[in-house]
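User: I want to check something. If I give you two sequences, will you return the structure for each one separately, not as a complex?

Assistant: Yes, each is folded on its own. Here is the first sequence with its structure:
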Amino acid sequence: MEKIFYTRTGKTALGSRLRMLSALFTEEAGKIYEQNQLPLKAQWFPVFYMLSQNEKKTITEIAREIGHSQPSVSRTIREMTAKGLITENKRSGDKRQNLVALSAKGRTLVPRMMDQCTDVDHAVEGLIQEAVHDLWKAIEEWEFLLEQKSLSRRVLEQKKQRESNLVSIVSYEPGYKAAFRSLNEAWISQYFEIETKDTRTLSNPGKYILEKGGFILVALYKGEPVGVCALIKMNDPDYDYELAKMAVAPSAQGKNIGFLLANAIIEKAKEQGASKLYLESNTRLKPAIRLYYKLGFKKITNRPSPYKRVNIQMGLDL
């Protein structure tokens, strides 16, 4: 029944399936200790093995070297001490810094434990030879890959990709006028103050953007306007258009909408034969600045701005 369940759930239940496999190995480990008449618990093995290789260790050192938490190691030390397998040399009030070592009783078990380790190593190697896939190497590889990028990060990226597939970029229509204004006013008032030019442009985008040769694109998520971006025609010898008035609703952030809008605006500029784009922003808007750099914009200086909030200007060669 378990295999049928995991066939139905697929890779979504990877963690549960690994726990089931881990439980199987833990159960088998208990049987192996019984077979060899070793008075040890399987979960004690990392601590026992570590102390069998060294005279004395602190709990902090053991935890760091075996990759377990200090509370977990402390609990194991207490259990092994109660069985007379460990001695503790107290040297401070912090128990984590006290030196622990195998007792005389514990050291008598080391040769038998080493023999058991040899048998287990050979048994696992035999299992690997029988298997089509080398689980040991696969675990090492997966651990390395997950260190480079965690599973939660990978899932978040997939979520963004799935949700971005529900986003469509459309040209501005008068019906989007209220959304264009409210989305921009929301972010400006959150971080700065709405200035005179903001009010003029947002109140009449047709007059101040479209009729002057500019464009506005709107991002729709499930049919609702959740993002906007403008391409404003510039009367400037160095730049053709300004990327401006880009805003995404807080409820729609995390869906790559800003990236999709900016890319669409850049493509629109290319369609118009533009060779250079310009933008103004503020370094407080860190996600936006990261996006602009990702798109290839580079910081420029010594240009006047009509906005008090501007402290960074950037340009892009198309």
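And separately, the second sequence with its own structure:
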Amino acid sequence: MTKNNLSLNISVFVFLFLGWYSVQTQADVDRNLAYPAADAELDAEDIAKQVYFANHFYAFSNFSIKRRGRTLSVLVNKAENGSPITIAVERHLNNNYDQDDAIRSRDLAIFHSGNLRGTGMLVTEYKNEKKSKDYMVWLPRLRKIRRFAQPRQEDAWGGSVFTFGDVTLRKPEDETHELLGRKKMRTCLGMMDELEGKLFRYTERVPERSCRQLDREVFGLKSTTKFKNWWYDYRISYVDTNSFADYRTLYYKNNRLIKIIDRDWGLVNTEGEGDPRALFWKYWYGIDLRTGLESLAVIPRKVVEINSNRKNSFWTERTLRKIKR
């Protein structure tokens, strides 16, 4: 393979995990967002911001989805009549920067399978909202670091059901929000039937579909996009009234259900102490009802590490250059 072809190939695939393993922030949703008081009356905007806080791991100084032996997190895509396609990756997020530091966060991802094996990405976000984020990619065959532009919200993440907007780029102000009331979860979360509960490469065993959310009280949050001619008109999310975990999101176009995304969340503070929003993803499951495409992202609990003692120097170009293929 020539250097030009290799560079093109990496350019095509480089954002496979960029959405999942990068952070997009805004001025009024950051690590300082307080957990609501017990007697607080939350409106739809308040709930949307709390959901954003939980999904961006702001309850932690740093958060890693690391490699433990042969166990890694994976993304699996399966067409309606196709075979599962798998990509494995580790990720390290750092929110622990001083108040006067120009950096807000840094996120490092390392790929461990397929054509991207040995590729690394470092995403830097600055506190200055007008300053663009840095997306640096280590290309192991070229032994070089390249910079790439931010993907679009509507782009598919890794060829999956999930878009970059679904995973990380959508901000609360990109939509108008309406509180539909409260209800209880009455169904288990979705799962890829072919893989459920089975041994699978990198993950050891794929989880069974989660039913722990049954009878949990959730907010119904309707979010209508502000973008014209968008791929969906509105979405309805079921949000835990205590932790703000968004268990299920239903997407509608012309009042027809077109896509479902389910998220199984794990609680770090199992004894009931600390911030209820200190959560981690166990798995995501999505299905596009128009095409039958299914996607599953699995994060085994054993690979999750929270608030490690790594120095900020770990999240630098030097670490990218040390990645082994």
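Because they were folded independently, the notes below concern the second chain alone. The first strand starts at residue 62 and ends at 65. The longest helix spans residues 44-55.
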